[in-house]
C-alpha cells in the first residue's frame, strides 16, 4: 500500500497546484475515492492523512476533506519587530481619517481597509432578520435598549464564550458600538491619563487612536508574525516600567496576522497576573480561522482577563455590534457606556440575536472561511509575482490581513516612506494602508498593510500589479 497511497497523494498535490482543486474545495469522500481509483478505503485514508500532514488539506470531522490555504516556504516572513521599548505619546494618527475618507470614494479598489468585502457578507440573512425584528418587535425596536444591552443577544454571546471554555455569564457582558468602543471603554475603566499600556508592535492604528485620545502612553513590544508578542520582551518591560495594562489581539492579529498558541496564551495570562497588570484580549478575528477548529482564547485561562470582540469582521461591519466580557468590570463599563451615548440601536441587536439563534451565523462562517483562505492565497501569489524580489510577507492562517515588508537594500538619500506610495496609489484609485500608521513612533515606513477580505477578482489582480510597479519605481528613485 505504501507506494500506492503516496502516488495518489502526489497526484492530488499536482491537481491542487494546477488549479483543478482550489482552496476550500472538498475532495471526494473515502468510499467514493476508493471506488473511483479502484483501491481500498485504507489506501485513500493513508493518502489523505499524508496530505493533511503536509497541510495540503484539512480534515473536518463529520464533514470531509477540504483543500487548505497553502504555505509558501520560499517566501520569507518579516523578522520579529524591534521597536524601542520606551513609553511614548502617540503621534500622527490624524492621517488615518484622511486616508479612510479617500479610500471610500466611488471607483476606488480598496486593498487596505481591514473589512470584509460586501460580496462575501450574508446580506440576505441580515435583511431577513432586520425585517423580522421590525415586524414582530415593532414597538420594542423603537425604544431605547439601555446598557448592558439586549438580554437575548448577551445570553447567546455568553453561550458562545462558554463553548470556548470561558467562565462568563450574560451578566458579565456589555454590548458596545463595535470592538473599538469596547476597547475604549475598557481602557477608560482601568487607566488615567499618563498611564502606560503595553501593545504589540506593529499594532492596529485604531488602538493607537484610543491611546492618544485618553492621554495614555504606549510601550511597543517586539512581535513576531507567527508567534505573536514576545513574552520575554514583555517581561523585561514589566520589570523596568510601571505598565498598567497589556492589550493583545490573540488570534490572527491586525496587522501581523499572528496567533498565540495555547501555551503562549496561558503563559501570557500568568505573566500579567504575576506582574499585576490587566490583560485585555481583543479577539475580533477569532472566528475567521481557515481551519475548522476555532482557536482558543486567553480568557479561558483566567476570568480576570478582559475580553473584547465584535461581529464587524465576521458578520458585517455596518452592524456595529461588539461587546466587553468581564466579571470585575461589567458594571463600570455599563456606566461608562451609558454616559458615552446612552444606548445602541435596538433593532440591530435583536437582528443579530436572531442570526445567532437560528444557526445562520455558523453556516455563514463555514462558507466564508474557505473564501477568505482562497482570496488570501491569490493575493500572496500576486504579491510574489508583481512585487520586488526580497519582499517579505506574513502567512496568516486566518482573517484577511497581510503585512508586507518592502526590501530597502540599496535605498539611500531621502528616507523611503510607503505613505508616498499610498498617495500615488490613491491617485490611481487604489487604496492601501502605509506602515507608519501602525506604530506610536511612526516606525515601519518600509511596510504596508493589505487586505484580501473577499472574492479575488481580475480588477484586484490588476490593481496589485500596478501597486507593484509603483513600489518598484519608488524604490528605484531612492537607490
Q: What brief labels describe this structure?
A:
single chain, 479 residues, alpha/beta, Arc Repressor Mutant, subunit A, Aspartate Aminotransferase, domain 2, four-stranded antiparallel beta sheet, globular
Largest sheet: 8 strands, mixed
Query: How much helix is in the residues?
Result: 40-55%
How many β strands by DSSP?
Answer: 16
Mean pLDDT: 90
Quote the beta fraction.
5-15%
Give the oligomer, counting copies of the same chain as homo and different chains as hetero: single chain
Q: What is the terminal-to-terminal distance? A: 57 Å
Return the CATH topology of the domain at 119-361: Aspartate Aminotransferase, domain 2
What is the name of the CATH architecture of the domain at 119-361?
3-Layer(aba) Sandwich
CATH superfamily of the domain at 119-361: Type I PLP-dependent aspartate aminotransferase-like (Major domain)
